[in-house]
Structure formats: structure tokens, C-alpha cells
Specification:
The complex is a heterodimer.
Chain A (H helix, E strand, L loop, with lengths): L1 H31 L6 H14 L5 H24 L7 H23 L4 E2 L9 E4 L2 E4 H23 L1 H11 L1 H6 L4 H26 L2 E2 L5 H14 L4 H21 L14 H15 L17
Antiparallel strand pairs in A: 1-4, 2-3
Helix pairs in contact in A: 1-5, 1-6, 1-8, 1-9, 1-10, 2-3, 2-4, 2-8, 2-9, 3-8, 5-6, 5-8, 6-8, 9-10, 10-11
Chain B lengths: L1 H21 L3 H27 L6 H16 L2 H7 L5 H4 L5 H23 L4 H21 L19 H20 L1 H11 L1 H6 L4 H27 L9 H14 L4 H23 L1 E3 L1 E3 L5 H16 L29
Antiparallel strand pairs in B: 1-2
Helix pairs in contact in B: 1-2, 1-8, 1-13, 2-8, 2-11, 2-12, 2-13, 3-6, 3-7, 3-11, 6-11, 8-11, 9-11, 12-13, 13-14
Classes of the chains: A mainly alpha, B mainly alpha.
Amino acid sequence: MTTFLQAVVNAVTLGSVYALIAVGIGLVFGVMRLVNFAYGQLIMVGGFALAVTIDWPVAASIGACFATVVVFSLAMELTVFRPLRTASPQTMLVTTFAVSFLLQAIALVKFGTFGRPANSLGQLNRAVSVGNIDIRYITFVALGVAAVALLALVLLLERTPIGLQLRAAAADPATARLLGVKADVVITVAVVIAGLLAAAVAVILTVQSPIVTSDYGLRETIIVLVGVVVGGIDRLWTATLGGFSIGFATGMLGQLLPSGDGLPFTRGVYLDSAVYLLVIVVLIFRPAGLFATRGSAGVERV
Amino acid sequence: MRKLTQIAGPLAVIGLVAIVGSFGSPARALEFVDALVAVSFVVALYVFVGNSGVLSFGQTSFVAVGAFAAGVMSAPVDSKAGQLPDLFPLLSDHAIGNLPSLVLATGIGGLYALLVGMPLMRLSGLAAGIATFAVLGITHNVLRYWTEIGPGAGTLASVPESTGLIQAAVGAMIIVGVAFAYQSSRFGRMLRASREDAAAARAVGVDVHRQRLWAFVLSGALCGLAGGLFVHETGTLTTEQVYLDLTFLTLAMLVIGGAYSLWGAVLGALLVSGFNSLLGDAENGIHIGFRLHAPTGTRIIVLGAVMTLTLLLRPTGVTGGHEFSLGWLGRREPKRPGGTTS
């Protein structure tokens, strides 16, 4: 029972970090219809910002991380995504690959294969014992940041004029424009928020895995992209829930699958296969997403 | 006549690349073989993605399966006992020649695509993209840990290096020829109709699911063949070589050339490969009028930047989705919806 509870706690932590990434991806998709594969490189940029400023006071270092990531996020939008706004989805997606490849290449040349350490928040790895379960401080931080960020976002979307415009643009970009919603303003706001979220993720991730390399955040982004589509990319809350679910599922399966040889293909090394198989099954039966309402627009089967 | 030009152009270019390559040093020839194998990968990918308009990350799985099948089966029996101790007896006690191994790779790629495609070809758009990505993830994961069928996380070695310029060129020509025959057939035309307007295609009686499945299986078989050509070029293989990097690079080549035409697929593969070689030379220092010596690491940065810039300046690819024609560079055809010609 204790191991199970411990597994749940760890899986929830992973899920909440993935949920933050999912919000960043889902928000940008909502207003631009763009799957931003280069989102992971924003997390990497944040990680390197923390690594470079490792000698600074912690608050200044985190501030530098947020500033750098937001600047990169805006630069990406202005130089690459804005000129391509009318291009086909295929071209946009492949362009984000190219941007991702480019940023990784620059990081690899600048910081080398072995990366840099960014462990100024390492003391958050210490754990407190609640009952028989060990909970690391970073778990509280991750949960807290996820909760605060999501709450702030909901308030922004539901209670402010710009939030209303964001929702209008996500629901129907053409009509929103006709009614006077400025696409550039809305997209800029979404891109800035996505950047802030990526920076927060970078701070949390560097506590758990402090060596920042050029492929930092890549694996997480791929898994969350999968999770977001499985949850339902058309709406922000289904996308977020999808991100959380795939994090939770990965965390649980990773800890509960046996590590030794049992039945064929039940070893822990086949975790990825198990998760991807679930993904395929969900997509075949619910192509618009697991949490999407039946008959939602955008995705159809032939 | 126009049809003849459309297929003769790409074939002639492939032949030309092979002939030019044969004049260089062995190391230089290897770069030309690389480019020709890239053409095979990208055209095999194009058969599905270009004709159906559905993005697939899964074709690399068929490349991987084909490459490992051809590699494991053509490695000499006495080398397998040492390097692949866990192999099933059927696989470890037999070895086949170059040509049978390529046929095997083609068959196994097509068969795997059929198995995967039957459920997945009902999906469109992003769901299809992510589902095919999941197939790639499973393929990579299983190949990496199932040591009864291959090297697992290790390296498969001592595969006969039979893909020289001739085999690479002939292989690429066969793949291009099959791709052209398919896209000119009624099946290819039905699928291309569904790409332009799925609802209208269905209204005139096109079974979109079935047509997509045909293309997916044909593409899977050609991907398997391309994988076989690849493993016979390198002589060694790891699972990482046929995973994410290859997937993104081949997709980028296809989109840069122009995803909706065969000529675009061929040209994209050749341009990106050629540019990659040129930058590799620049890192080592070359004379092009003046001595160019670029610092190490320039290659991947410039390659990334050029790919991004090409997509920004020509979102429909270098060919804009047009097939090869003799007045290709001079004449600007009026843009048609979807940018297709054939």
C-alpha cells in the first residue's frame, strides 16, 4: 500500500509538470492552430539561462531564466511563426522542427555534448516523511506552481477583456477578427504566457535533473504533445488534462511494471510501448481526444 | 510527352548523381551514395504523405524494420553467434545474399505497414500524425530491447557493404519509378483527389480509407527497401540511426523540396544532402575561389538555419509542388488550388 501511495505521489508530480507544458502548447495551438514542436527548446533555453547564471543569487537567476525564455518565445513568433501564419499546417509543423533543430545545434556548439549543471535549487530535492511516504520539497513546489499558474490562467481567460479575446480567437479566428479582435495582440499574449510557463517548467525540471544538455526538455515535450492530442487539442482544459494524464500514466506504469523477466513484454523497459499502445487505442476510438465531447469539430475519421 | 518528361527528369538526375560520384575519391563517392539513399527514403515517404496529404511519422518504422531484417539476415552466420547471442535459431543459423535480403526488407516493410495501417488509416490530421508517431515509438522501443530478433541496444555489425553507387542508383530509380507509376494510376489519382477534397472524393465514390491503406502499404514496402539499401551502405546499424533524427530529416527534405510532387521529393533529398556535404567540406577547409574554413559545428547550425529560411521563403517547397518539366526554372505556371500539376 505504501509503495502504491508513493507511486501515486510521484506520478502526480510528473503529471503536474507535464500539465504545465501542455497548457503552453495548447494555448499557442488555440490561437494559432500551430503545433509548436520547438516548445521543448524554450525549456532548454531556460535551463541554460539557469546554468549560466548559477553564481547569481537564486532569485536573480530565476528572473534571468524567465526573461530569456520570454524573449526567445517572442523572437520565435516574430521571425518564424508570423510570416508563416497562412502556410499549410504541414509546413508550419516542419518549420517548428527546423527551429527546434537549429536551437539544439546552437546549444550543442556553444555548450558541448556534456552540457552544464544548473543545480542552484538542489536543496529542494530533500524530502519530508509523511507517514511512510517520502515527499520531496520540489513536489510541493511543482504542485504549487501548477495550481497557481492554472488558476491565474483561468482568471485571465474568464475575467479579463484580453482573456475574452483569447477565447474568441481560439473558438473561431475568422469571426473574432471580423469583430475587431486583433490577431497580433492575442497571439503575442498567448506566446508570452507560453514562454512564462516554459520558464517555470525549466526551473522545476532543473531541480530533478540538473545537467542541462542540448536535448533538454525534448523528451518531455514529445510525450506531452502526444498527451495533448490524446486529451483533445481543440480545447485548453482537455489538452491540459491530456498532458496530466500521460504524465500520471507514465509515472504509474514506470513504477508498477516489473523490472525482471516475467511474461514476454511485461518488463519495465517496454514502458514506452505500453504508453504508445494506449495512445493508439484511444485515438482509434476517440480521434478528437479522450476528454472531447462527442462530435466535436476539427477531427474526423474516414 | 509531358508525362515522359516528368519521370525522365528525376531518373536522369539520379543517374547523373551516380556518374558524377564515380569520378571522386572513395570517401567522396560515399557522400553521393548517401544522397542517393536519402532520395530513396524521401520518395518512399512521399508515396504516402505526398499523395494522401496525411502527415506520417511512422514511415521510419518501416525503414527500421526493413534495415534490421536485411542486416540481420545477410550478416554471415559465424559472425552472428558472437555478436547476437540471443537470436532465435531460425535467424542465427541462416544467412541470405544481397538481393534476397532487399526483397525480404521490401516484403516485411509492406507487411508491417498493412498490419499497422488497417486500424490507423481511419484517422486524419493531427490524430493520424500522433498515432503514426506512437507506432514509431513502439517500433524503436521493441527493437531496442528484444534481443531475440536483433542487436537490441548494441550495434549490428559485419553486414556486407553491397550498396555502392550502382546499387544505390538502381534502388533509387526503382523506388522513383514505382512512385511515379502509382501516382499516375487510377489508385493514385483517387487518393490525390481525396487529398484535395475528401468530401468531394467520397461523393464520387472514392473509398478514402482503402486508397490511403494502399498508399501506406506501398510506401511501407518502399521504405523497407530503402532501409535495406541503407544497412548495406553502412555495414553497421543501431536503433538510434533509424529513429527521430532520420524521421525529422526526411520530412524536412520532403517539405523543402515540395511535398506534393515526386520531383519535389527527389530534389529536396538531393539539395539538403548536397548542402550538408558542402558544409562538411567547409568545416575541413576548402578552396572555392578563396579558402573557406568554417569553425567546427557550423554545419548543423547553418543547415538548421537554411532549412528554416527555405520554409519561410517558399512555404510550398522549392518546386512549389510542380513535377519536373523542361521549362521548369523559366516558366511560372499559374498557381492552382493545392499547387499540384499531375
